[in-house]
Design goal:
The structure holds 2 protein chains of 2 kinds. Chain A is an alpha/beta fold. Chain A is built from 15 helices and 10 strands. In chain A, a hairpin with a 5-residue loop joins strand 4 and strand 5. In chain A, helix 10 runs antiparallel to helix 11. The chains are: A alpha/beta, B mainly alpha.
Chain lengths: ~475, ~425
């Protein structure tokens, strides 16, 4: 028995070593790829035709879909920001998904809404609708009030009501920059291969000063450590994770907070899947599946210059909910589309990207948590020397710091949205600190999500919003 | 020995990563320091050269202005002057004087040299700059780039030529349309957007070109561009010629051109458009509605009314929308349509009546002096109520409107609810 345990522990140690080596090699490759891609993109922005497209009648119209559930604190601001976008032709569709607070009343009062009746075609089945509202002053704003059906259901309802060939999903706690729409549409217009979805960067709104209710003014960092950890995480995730995958034409995740989709393709794929807690990723996987099955050329793009600012959780309870939900969504999406895994019919998506997500993202927290337990046991049983144990932990921590520093470095050499010296140093410092506790907490929440999946606890964990971002008066 | 080797490897890895972290930290800090210093200097230089430019504007000779702004290529001052002048061009078309200034200061020659660079980004940036500078003398160097294999270079060259706005550039682009679009090197939307920059002169060139090419894909691109250019009889002639094209997209674009011309051109009699209301392809019918509304105005109400019963919902919706924009003359058409049994058509009409706020006029019409108008308003609202399009009626009752109208509305709602 003891022999078997020792053999298992030894085997696990070798496995952890190999796993660590492979995952970090992948990260290093992504980093190198994204560094090249992002620098090229930055140079290209200088001669990008945004100004031409902005005035062109040929720029396709977009429906901005904003699903809302109990968001009375933030929703008006988000809608104002969406309406203020510089884009030739767009409509804003707000879907009130059975809010139980004063969201609808707030909307009616803020925009002078009137109840109207509207022809609504059910291309995608959704929960029943209660009413449509329109504004006399803002002809491109429509509010739909419906019975609660979840975010996917609300987005599907928005797709049904949309009259434009493209739609952009935006969260109710997010602010679009004025040129975000035209920037996210540029690859669609310029690419000679149909671009069926395109995502932009999501940045952290907490701590940022708003020059009015809708416009990003002076950018500052929140005093809260939890927010700073998330800023570093977002920089790393967007600027080198997604840019790297985009360079490989293998994107599997676009943030539902801000992504553009070709409506007909989404309809062909069956819309957002109701019941999946991470509807954005699940849809992207299904879009890949649809297009690869049809054997038609397509692209799913991520570009780093269109920006949407979003509020992130400021306490551990809400953060834990959000992270569990994200991870649960990832597991659900992979499980729902498991026949794509290792299936050469789906090209790099089936053979590389999905296995990567399965082995390094889904199983990563299990290996990490087990590592924290088994490696010290190995030392206790005399299978590992103290020297080796400490060095291995050091290596893991140092590599984590390297990746966080790389994320901040990418931001520094590209967009530099955090202008002060103290911003730079604080971000670098939090890039170091996040490896001592924050990373481990994240792994724990992700492990919990795994257990939730196994226990069939697949409900949406709601994250409360406070209306982060400060106005001129300094309200947080 | 084996354990020692593992430890040595890990130590080396840790040391290497630490070194990399150090490099990244140092690079971040140094880059920010350099950036801050560069931009501080650049801001100062911009201010200085702006002042010099303002002072030199008072000078008589262009030579003096050039001398006041002269800087060594590649220096910060050179960049500051370039940004200053380009800033002026981006506010509107570049004047001959500004073009001459770019030439005298050596910017045009500098970027022309960069056209030979193998790096795509550097080359494309140079092409773009020449375009913004409206460097007419660079045309002979830019035109061969239209034969480049790289789509990025092609797209930037087309945009640059469209900013220079010389006829030779336009002709060169139009001559290569099949090659540029056929190989999907440049997207149609990007091409159409660029062609619009040429303005009126593009009409003549596209008119001349259309007689030589029969490719429907190219022709629809040409017609789409024409539909956004200023009204011209030549565009009308081309559009009329293509109304009978076997390709549906071409027919639709031809209609779009005619719609854009509106009733300003004598050839646009509605008779040309009317047959296309019965086109077998839905988007041609949809475009025919839009065009007819523009060219025929109120007389189009009856023919458009027939499409309220179209098989395609987009066409029905467009017809209802067009009619609601035509005003009072559409009331009879609406009433006739609302009295039929086609629920889909009736729903589209009701929605458009609400969306375009015709509903307010109809509610007010309940108290109209003219009995016929009162009766029509009541009939329409009654049918709308029956189709559950009554939200504005209920809302009216909660407002501060006339009591007489409120009583009418109340009666209407109650009668229909009972029915």
């Amino acid at each position: 028995m003891k022999r078997a345990v020792i053999a298992f522990i030894l085997g696990f140690n070798y496995f952890v070593g190999a796993y660590f080596g492979i995952v970090n090699t992948m990260y290093a490759m992504l980093l190198a790829l994204s560094l090249g891609a992002i620098l090229q993109h930055i140079k290209r922005i200088k001669y990008s035709p945004i100004r031409d497209f902005h005035v062109s009648p040929e720029t396709p119209p977009i429906s901005i879909l904003i699903p809302v559930h109990n968001e009375e604190q933030v929703v008006v601001r988000s809608i104002h920001a969406a309406l203020a976008c510089d884009y030739p032709s767009f409509e804003v569709i707000v879907i009130n998904d059975g809010s139980t607070d004063g969201t609808l009343k707030t909307l009616i009062a803020a925009f002078g809404l009137r109840k109207i009746d509207r022809v609504y075609r059910t291309f995608l089945k959704t929960a029943p609708l209660r009413a449509f509202y329109a504004s006399r002053m803002l002809p491109n704003l429509i509010v739909i009030d419906k019975v609660q059906g979840g975010k996917s259901d609300a987005l599907n309802c928005g797709i049904n009501a949309s009259r434009c060939p493209y739609f952009c999903s935006v969260d109710a706690d997010s602010l679009l920059e004025k040129d975000a729409l035209i920037r996210v549409m540029t690859p669609v217009i310029e690419s000679s291969v149909p671009v069926i979805a395109c995502g932009g960067v999501v940045r952290v709104l907490n701590g940022v000063h708003l020059s009015d209710e809708t416009t990003i003014g002076r950018i500052d960092l929140s005093p809260r450590s939890l927010v700073l950890f998330q800023i570093v995480e977002y920089l790393r995730g967007f600027l080198f994770g997604r840019v790297g995958w985009d360079a490989l034409n293998s994107l599997l995740i676009l943030s539902g907070t801000f992504s553009l989709f070709h409506k007909q393709t989404v309809l062909d794929a069956g819309g957002f899947k109701v019941g999946n807690v991470s509807e954005d990723m699940e849809l992207i996987v299904r879009l890949h599946r649809l297009k690869r099955s049809q054997k038609k050329p397509y692209r799913i793009r991520f570009i780093s210059d269109p920006i949407c600012w979003t509020e992130v959780p400021e306490n551990l309870r809400m953060l834990a909910r959000q992270r569990r939900r994200w991870h649960l969504g990832l597991i659900q999406s992979l499980a729902d589309n498991r026949e794509m895994l290792f299936n050469p019919r789906f090209g790099t998506i089936g053979m590389v990207v999905m296995p990567y997500y399965l082995f390094f993202e889904v199983l990563g927290p299990i290996v990490e948590i087990m590592g924290y337990v088994i490696v010290p046991i190995s030392w206790f049983l005399g299978l590992l020397s103290v020297q080796f144990l400490l060095l291995f932990f050091t290596l893991a921590i140092v590599y984590g710091i390297f990746l966080s520093t790389a994320g901040v470095f990418l931001e520094e050499i590209t967009y530099r949205r955090y202008p002060l010296w103290r911003h730079l140093f604080r971000l670098l410092w939090y890039g170091v600190l996040e490896n001592f506790g924050y990373r481990q907490m994240n792994a724990f929440w992700r492990l919990q999500a795994g257990f939730n999946y196994l226990g069939n606890r697949l409900h949406w964990e709601h994250v409360e919003r406070k209306g982060g971002g400060r106005t001129k008066e300094g309200r947080q | 020995m084996h354990d020692n080797l593992k430890i040595i490897i890990i130590v080396i890895a840790v040391a290497f990563i630490l070194l990399m972290i150090g490099v990244l930290l140092l690079a971040s800090v140094l880059r920010r320091a350099r950036h801050n210093s560069t931009y501080r200097k650049l801001d100062a230089l911009r201010r200085e050269y702006r002042l010099r430019l303002q002072q030199a504007c008072g000078a008589d000779a262009a030579y003096d202005r050039a001398e006041a702004l002269r800087a060594e290529p590649g220096t910060l001052a050179w960049r500051a002057v370039e940004e200053l002048l380009l800033g002026q061009t981006k506010e509107g078309p570049c004047g001959a004087e500004l073009q001459a200034l770019f030439r005298r200061l050596g910017y045009t020659a500098y970027y022309e040299k960069q056209l030979a660079n193998r790096n795509i980004v550097v080359k494309a940036a140079a092409i773009d700059k020449l375009g913004w500078m409206e460097a007419e003398e660079s045309l002979p160097r830019l035109l061969p780039l239209l034969d480049d294999k790289n789509p990025e270079i092609l797209a930037v060259t087309i945009r640059a030529l469209s900013r220079i706005r010389l006829n030779e550039g336009l002709v060169a682009i139009v001559e290569r349309l099949p090659a540029l679009l056929g190989r999907s090197l440049v997207t149609r939307k990007a091409m159409e957007t660029a062609l619009l920059n040429f303005g009126e002169q593009a009409v003549a060139c596209l008119a001349e070109y259309h007689s030589r090419d029969t490719d429907p894909w190219i022709m629809s691109c040409v017609l789409e561009t024409l539909s956004h250019l200023p009204p011209d009889t030549r565009s009308a002639v081309i559009a009329l010629e293509h109304l009978g094209s076997p390709n549906a997209e071409v027919r639709s674009k031809a209609l779009k051109v005619l719609g854009r011309l509106g009733s300003s051109i004598f050839v646009c009699f509605p008779e040309y458009v009317l047959p296309l209301l019965e086109d077998p392809v839905w988007f041609v019918r949809l475009q025919a509605i839009k065009t007819l509304k523009e060219v025929a105005g109120k007389t189009a109400a009856r023919p458009i009314g027939k499409l309220l019963f179209d098989a395609n919902w987009r066409v029905r919706s467009e017809a209802a929308q067009a009619l609601s924009q035509l005003g009072d003359c559409a009331v009879d058409v609406f009433l006739d349509a609302l009295r039929t049994s086609d629920v889909y058509a009736k729903e589209s009409i009701c929605e458009e009546i609400q969306k375009t706020h015709c509903i307010d006029a109809l509610i007010e019409g309940l108290d109209h002096r003219d009995e016929a108008m009162r009766s029509k308003s009541r009939d329409i609202l009654r049918i709308m109520r029956g189709l559950r399009f009554f939200a504005p009626l209920a809302e009216f009752l909660e407002g501060n409107g006339s009591e007489r109208i409120k009583n009418e509305v109340r009666r209407l709602l109650e009668t229909e609810a009972a029915a």
